[in-house]
Design a protein that fits this description.
Layout (H helix, E strand, L loop, with lengths): L1 H16 L4 H13 L1 H7 L5 H15 L5 H17 L3 H13 L11 H25 L5 H6 L4 H17 L1 H10 L1
Length: 180
């Protein structure tokens, strides 16, 4: 059901952001639905489909008007994404950077959307991480400390995983090159 929700959000985002061309608007859903990793991970019972759903929610939110309501929705979605997977912290930093980038021309003081995003995110994330630190003694799950060994072999394995991802999802490379 999460994958269906993700595909629906991608379609609605495409409706709002892409030119009025049914073919172009449908590609986001087609690429998502035909990606082998979606089929693999949606049936695994892990948190990956939920994390993908939060990212699709963020795309949908950013296609809307940048006001208090959508800023609050963005902060809530980022907090839920961060509670789902620790990479949500990086997603939060990416969203904040995009809203402070020079082409946006709005400073933090002027940016109502970003203010509400940051406020709601921190109202949820800070108490959770304080509790987590007091209860478990770590900010992220212990599997991240085990998997995140900083050595040459860890970087080599990460490179291998990236190559493996693009070997199964080569159509994303075409999109990256076409966009860039």
């Amino acid at each position: 059901f999460l994958s269906l929700g993700t595909a629906t959000l991608l379609f609605l985002t495409a409706q709002k952001t892409l030119p009025p061309n049914r073919f172009a608007r449908g590609w986001s859903v087609v690429l998502f639905a035909t990606a082998p990793t979606v089929g693999l991970w949606t049936t695994s019972g892990m948190e990956t489909p939920l994390a993908a759903f939060w990212v699709a929610c963020l795309l949908f939110i950013h296609a809307q008007k940048a006001d208090k309501f959508w800023g609050t929705a963005c902060g809530l979605t980022l907090a839920l994404a961060e509670l789902t997977r620790p990479e949500g912290k990086a997603l939060f930093l990416l969203v904040a950077a995009l809203h402070l980038f020079p082409f946006n021309r709005a400073t933090f003081r002027e940016n109502v959307f970003l203010k509400y995003t940051v406020l709601v995110f921190f109202l949820i994330a800070v108490p959770y991480h304080l509790w987590r630190l007091m209860y478990f003694g770590h900010f992220v799950p212990n599997t991240y400390y085990v998997k995140g060994v900083h050595s040459f072999f860890a970087y080599e394995r990460g490179y291998e995983m990236l190559l493996e991802f693009f070997a199964y999802n080569y159509h994303y490379l075409a999109i990256i090159f076409a966009a860039g």
